[in-house]
């Protein structure tokens, strides 16, 4: 698979705490990449580096061969849409108003709100299942509803890349699978999806490309059917398990044996 978005020999740190050293990754174009691993292994840190919320101590993140640090803010935001783990909405903002902020990268100083902007917001609300909440204050929503609103904001941004950090957080199981199915459809339509996921079986079912991290290093990457086995689960998660075919999709399904 080709890759427009790449990481080269990254060293990532928070102050004196080093998270990753010499980490390199090619993100396959028009594919669904799932990043998995135990807590505090560097998954969120990697996504933050991709969207330049964290500057590498060494190495670089490249988009089309250019360091992401060289892009103007709006220019990068038209390419990379990012949903962080714990986004915070402004007080008293309503759902439609918040989602409309996803159109900011496409606005110029003198531009007025366009039909294209309106259509992007309506399409995003429909896709995320929040159209019926459009006039509700965000603060009044449940955690799961708020999460779907944030997903809609990123969708309204209309970027070729979607980077989502634990997008299924706070969602009930039905909405988890609906969201993952939506991301898979966007992949099929030509978008590139990179998502941090905690459920390894969901990652195996929906992702084309799996990246398994531990202690800030990539333990394995590739198609789930090629890399997910009991040995990998033990190495990455310290989890004794049996890996069997998913009865619905045939993809790897991890069954803990402890």
Automatic annotation (TrEMBL):
Residues 5-240 form the ABC transporter domain. It is a peripheral membrane protein. One of its GO terms (molecular function) is ATP hydrolysis activity. One of its GO terms (biological process) is iron ion transport. Its main location: membrane. It is found in: Cell membrane. Keywords: ATP-binding, Cell membrane, Ion transport, Iron, Iron transport, Membrane, Nucleotide-binding, Transport. One of its GO terms (cellular component) is plasma membrane. Pfam families: ABC_tran (PF00005). This is Ferric enterobactin transport ATP-binding protein FepC.
């Amino acid at each position: 698979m080709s890759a427009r978005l790449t990481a080269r020999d990254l060293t990532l740190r928070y102050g004196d705490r080093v998270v990753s050293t010499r980490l390199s990754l090619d993100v396959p174009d028009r594919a669904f990449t799932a990043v998995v691993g135990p807590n505090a292994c560097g998954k969120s840190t990697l996504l933050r580096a991709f969207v330049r919320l964290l500057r590498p101590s060494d190495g670089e993140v490249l988009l089309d061969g250019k360091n992401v640090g060289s892009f103007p803010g709006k220019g990068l935001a038209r390419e990379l849409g990012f949903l962080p783990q714990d986004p915070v909405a402004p007080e008293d903002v309503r759902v439609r108003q918040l989602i409309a902020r996803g159109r900011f990268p496409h606005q110029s100083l003198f531009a007025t709100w366009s039909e294209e902007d309106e259509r992007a917001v309506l399409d995003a609300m429909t896709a995320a299942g929040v159209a019926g909440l459009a006039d509700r204050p965000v603060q009044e929503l449940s955690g799961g509803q708020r999460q779907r609103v944030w997903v809609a904001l990123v969708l309204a941004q209309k970027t070729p890349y979607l980077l989502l950090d634990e997008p299924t957080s706070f969602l009930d199981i039905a909405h988890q699978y609906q969201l993952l199915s939506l991301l898979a459809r966007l992949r099929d339509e030509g978008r590139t999806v990179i998502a941090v996921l905690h459920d390894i079986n969901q990652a195996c079912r929906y992702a084309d490309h799996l990246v398994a991290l531990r202690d800030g290093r990539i333990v394995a990457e590739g198609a789930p059917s090629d890399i997910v086995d009991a040995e990998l689960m033990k190495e990455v998660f310290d989890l004794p398990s049996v890996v069997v075919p998913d009865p619905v999709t045939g993809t790897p399904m991890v069954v803990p044996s402890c």
